[in-house]
Amino acid sequence: METLIIRTKSKSNAKLLFELSKKIGDQVVILPPEQAEDFALGLLMDKIKTGETVSRKDIMKELSE
After folding, report:
1. What values do phi and psi take at 53, rounded to 5?
2. Within its chain, how far is the Cα of 57 from the centroid?
3. pTM (predicted TM-score)
4. Residue ranges of domains in the chain
5. 4-41 burial string, b = 16+ CB within 10 Å, else e?
6. Nearest to 7 by CA among 48, 34, 36
7. In whole angstroms, what is the distance from residue 24 CA to residue 11 CA?
8. pLDDT tens, residue by residue, 7-63
9. Using an 8 Å Cβ cutoff, are 22 and 28 in contact?
């Protein structure tokens, strides 16, 4: 299974793509803008993960400065 996310500039394009996808038998889900942003942020976070950990002490020190 593949996933395709398309961000359209107009509702008419979205409607056309939605109808086309349904017609060819694919499942279609419309994400609200907030969910699309959350998804993009998650992808970015996964991409830049370093695997490093930071101690609570170091975090509190940075926050207090």
Report:
1. -115, 155
2. 32
3. 0.54
4. 11-64
5. eeeeeeeeeeeeeebeeeeeeeeeeeeeeeeeeeeeee
6. 36
7. 20
8. 888 999 999 999 999 999 999 988 888 998 999 999 999 999 888 999 999 999 999
9. yes
